[in-house]
Protein 1
Amino acid sequence: MWRFKLSKNNYEKLKALVRDREGYISRAREYFNIIGELPPAYGGQIHHVEWRSHGGGDREDNLILLSFQLHDRVHSASRKERKELEAKFLSYLSCGEVEKWRSEHREELEALYRVAEEEMEKKKRNGCLPKKPKWAAF
Ligand SMILES: [Zn+2]
């Protein structure tokens, strides 16, 4: 299955942007209100809300900075608890403060996405990508 994937370098840049997004007081407040803890000021890990293994893309609106403890919890939670946490993450990712940040960083984000899209187009032209995902073969 193909997923939206940035180059290693650009993914590092995107992760730095997500850290910057969570690092500011007005968004940290929203994060706290919705998720129940502050985003980690140092360390922590970037999580794909829709998991990479489920085709979740390297896009800013699918990424969130979590403490090690919370990240561990998401990946070991029961399905029900995971769904609850994911609903909170999505609600944070679509809150006004994050939307504002997103529009302020639109050009920067689109520049990163464009490279990945061009790569994909190139692969398609060279026939390196299946026309349909495997599960849609029949
Ligand atoms: Zn994760």
Protein 2
Amino acid sequence: MKPQLPAFLLPLFFSRALAADFTIANGQIFTPGFAVLDAPQPGTPLGGDTIEVALDVSANGKLNLPPYGDGSPSKIYNITIFLSSYTTGRNFTITNGTASANNASLGDIMLSESGSTVKHVKWQWPDCLVGDGQPTTSDSDRGIYNISIRQNFRLNNEDHYTIFDVPISVTNSIPSNGNPSCDSLDNPLLTEDQIDAAAANTVGVLFAPGDATQVEATYPDSSDDEEGLGGSKPEATAGDGLGGAGSSSVSGAVCWMAGLAVFLVLLT
Ligand SMILES: *[C@@H]1O[C@H](CO)[C@@H](O)[C@H](O)[C@H]1NC(C)=O
Ligand SMILES: *[C@@H]1O[C@H](CO)[C@@H](O)[C@H](O)[C@H]1NC(C)=O
Ligand SMILES: *[C@@H]1O[C@H](CO)[C@@H](O)[C@H](O)[C@H]1NC(C)=O
Ligand SMILES: *[C@@H]1O[C@H](CO)[C@@H](O)[C@H](O)[C@H]1NC(C)=O
Ligand SMILES: *[C@@H]1O[C@H](CO)[C@@H](O)[C@H](O)[C@H]1NC(C)=O
């Protein structure tokens, strides 16, 4: 028996789920890691053929795309994403690094869209989420979910595995269109105590405007003994993500920050 809320209480529960704090600047949501979430925004009702999660995996140019130098003090090992809900009892794999048949779950997102620092993770909704509107029955799998972004990375010689949950609602129309089966994508749900996100996330939200964190990283074409400082490519765009460590900069980062119209929105 899955825990369920009566449908009329879901909107109330959802606004409570949104009470978490997010660090949002210029529509970008900063996370405990190199990924910066461009979309969706927390609390968005979603549907359509696919869910699309847009992630800048370079912290807006502070870390180049892979490949990294051997022994680079900073790098992304991998990013996995799940769609889970304690309300519906589901925990679907969006990507765990290994594509399953027909991309029902996706392969390594760091290797997708080669050269682009923004990865648009498009995942077809599985069959039990097909429908329209709020869940109408107590055993519906539609309703509120977290997009759970798990980052395995190294920052200045320290390894981290962080957990960033973004609440969304699966309440818009999802058409039936050869959707993969929910059961083939479902994983066991762990309790919040087992996951212990607070312990995993001690590194804190990184790279928001005003954060002075400097990134030490090396790339294959930088000289072996040189540790390029990150923040050197604040203007990085799709297409120039691969390549040298570049010259350094603190000043680049500072200009970038000063140039931004900075506003932090804390959803309360
Ligand atoms: C992600 O990277 C970590 C650290 O290297 C490794 O232990 C883990 O197996 C990797 N997971 C995936 C899905 O590649
Ligand atoms: C989303 O994750 C938070 C913890 O990050 C948890 O408290 C909340 O219950 C989760 N929401 C759902 C719908 O499972
Ligand atoms: C799965 O996605 C990858 C990366 O986008 C693509 O190259 C491949 O063709 C897709 N495979 C299928 C069966 O759709
Ligand atoms: C990745 O996820 C798919 C779908 O949930 C699962 O079948 C597969 O065993 C997972 N692979 C790994 C390495 O965890
Ligand atoms: C969902 O499944 C993945 C893979 O097994 C696991 O790492 C993650 O902690 C699970 N999420 C929840 C909320 O249980």
